[in-house]
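Student:
Attend to each token:
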Amino acid sequence: MNSIVKENKMVSSYFLFFLVHSTQTGVLFLQIQSTIIKGAGHDAWIPILLLGIMMHVLFLMMLYILKNSSTGDIISFHRDVFGKVFGGLLNLIMATYFSMVSLYVLYTYIDILQIWVFDGIPSWEFSLLFSVLIYYIVVGGFRVVTAIAYWGVVIPSFLLLSFLYLLDYVETSRLIPLFQYGVKDYLLSAKEAAPLYLGFENVLVFFPFIKNREKSTKWGHIALLYTTFIYTLVTLFAFIYFSQEKLEHLAWPVLTMIKMIQFPVLERFEFIFIFTWLLVVMPVICIYLWSAIRSIKLTIPKTKPTYLLVCLLVVFHFVNNQLTEIQYSHLMAKIVDYSGLIFLFGYVPFLFLIAVVRKKLKKGSKQIQTGEGKSQ
């Protein structure tokens, strides 16, 4: 697998764990429990577990696609297979998707801040502040983005210990009986839970920046296992903490649970949780944005990455300032979810099939040429 990336811009192979896991942990994690329970009830943790296993298959498909591209990324694969014009168009569509996800995560986190903490501060002030922070992270290059991903996994992991405080309020009997729902109910929960695992498709863009790529894939699988473990654990905890009837009507189940934690010197522990969660969402925003800019840069070489970053952040600021009504939030959520699911469960397998057929055709062509050479 060839690479056009200089070694001094690469990161060690174990950072693939932090890059994959950090992109999969975002805002949706805080609210998905109230959505998936409407399908398979308290059995909805099962689809989350099964989806996590399925992600490993998709990850292997991505690695195969990258292995059969000229420079080890999906950008060159598009160009190799579909040509310069149509392949470039596909790269720009992909960059639009990456940008949309980055915008949505920022938009939703600002929404959380206004609902739970600062209800009197307008969106544009948060947007301006975060835009400056995002600019300095992304303009610093992939190694800086990776550092943010590292701390975005390590520091918030300690927040999981806060759930130990709530053990006295859980009822494990709420999980019984198991397997009492139909296939349709499980599929409904799986459909709602699938967007949780979006994010690791960025591997298709940043993989050339990983050292020892052939040996680093284990870190990607470990990251997917860890993500699946965290999602299943927190979902199970929410299911035994709340009754099904109450959970269905909660907009932010995880934050509602955290709100119950109080200390003598700190009554509003959820504030600490929400502020720390900025370290979780920032890698998602920056990695998606970085992937979008790189996709455009390699497709249109004359584009200045810094100017492009500024333009995208201006768009982000405009959306957060002007489109504040709830219908825009629902619209963006639908666009991001459906686009991500189509990309992950539709487009990736499609490209994988193309890569398999393409490799077999090349192998057959070589055998024919070898046979002709011997006959001569």
Summary: The chain has a mean pLDDT of 88. Residues 326-375 form the longest helix (50 residues). The two ends are 33 Å apart (CA to CA).
